[in-house]
Amino acid sequence: DGGITQSPKYLFRKEGQNVTLSCEQNLNHDAMYWYRQDPGQGLRLIYYSQIVNDFQKGDIAEGYSVSREKKESFPLTVTSAQKNPTAFYLCASTPGGTEFFYGYTFGSGTRLTVV
Amino acid sequence: GDSVTQMEGPVTLSEEAFLTINCTYTATGYPSLFWYVQYPGEGLQLLLKATKADDKGSNKGFEATYRKETTSFHLEKGSVQVSDSAVYFCALPPTGGGNKLTFGTGTQLKVEL
């Protein structure tokens, strides 16, 4: 079955470390997204990519970086510049195009904790 | 710009009670509308959608009717169960092009025995 796989499910980071969260999809979707969710909060967009080798900043991109070298992969790096990275991170994808909007498919999330 | 407003939670109900979670939107034209559900510790799942005005989306006993007159898409269920405890998000696709969904802030539902 097609879907989005996020790994790891739980991740612990020491102060000053960079960590990378994985997001892989086998849905053949063009567009991919990263969201951050804090306890009791809604979703905040970090980065998104509409096509391979291209990505745009979302609302809270500072302290994060991404790459989109392959259609199926959109890894997120949380750098040491992100001062409060403890959160739940969600990856999503959608087929892309503007003729009809199909909605997003989400991964199961990665919970990042600074220790 | 496009926006979605949801009622604040948490909403606490007894099992078998009637549920309404309000959602209103501001957008150009008549976009599709979505409800997503997030169970504890999981990602979001599409619950239901409506693609045009007066459409009713339904799934798992939940319903929502797209009302263009009131720009609303309220989520309802006649009899909630403990297993419905989750966070519910109303969402609006872009009306000016692109693929970025606009999400409401989410409404937490707690159902007690």
Looking at this protein, list some descriptive labels:
heterodimer, A: 115 residues, mainly beta, 7-stranded mixed β-sheet, 0% helix, 49% strand, globular, B: mainly beta, 6-stranded mixed β-sheet
Would you give an account of this structure?
The complex is a heterodimer of chains A (115) and B (113). Chain A starts with a strand and ends with a strand. Chain A has no helices and 11 strands. Helices cover 0% and strands 49% of the residues of chain A. In chain A, strands 2, 4, 5, 6, 9, 10 and 11 form a 7-stranded mixed β-sheet that branches. In chain A, strands 1-3-8-7 form a 4-stranded antiparallel β-sheet, with no helix packed on it. Chain A has 115 residues and is mainly beta. In chain A, a hairpin with a 5-residue loop joins strand 4 (31-37) and strand 5 (43-51). The radius of gyration of chain A is 14 Å and the shape is globular. With 113 residues, chain B is an all-beta fold. Helices cover 0% and strands 48% of the residues of chain B. Chain B has strands at residues 3-6, 11-14, 19-21, 23-26, 33-38, 44-50, 56-59, 62-65, 75-77, 86-92, 102-103, 107-112. In chain B, strands 2, 5, 6, 10, 11 and 12 form a 6-stranded mixed β-sheet that branches. In chain B, strand 5 and strand 6 (44-50) form a beta hairpin. The N and C termini of chain B lie far apart (41 Å). In chain B, 38% of the residues are buried. The A-B interface holds A 4, 6, 31, 33, 40-43, 45, 48, 50, 90, 92, 94, 96-98, 101, 103-109, 111 and B 31-32, 34, 36, 41-46, 49, 89, 91, 93-94, 97-101, 103-106, 108.
| Helix segment tally of chain B | 0
Low-confidence stretches of chain B: none
Helix residue percentage of chain B: under 10%
Largest sheet of chain B: 6 strands, mixed
Helix-strand string of chain B: EEEEEEEEEEEE
Give the assembly state of these chains: heterodimer
Roughly how many Å is the radius of gyration of chain B?
A: 14 Å
Q: Average pLDDT value of chain A?
A: 92
Protein chain pair with the most extensive contact, residues per chain? A-B, 26 and 25 residues
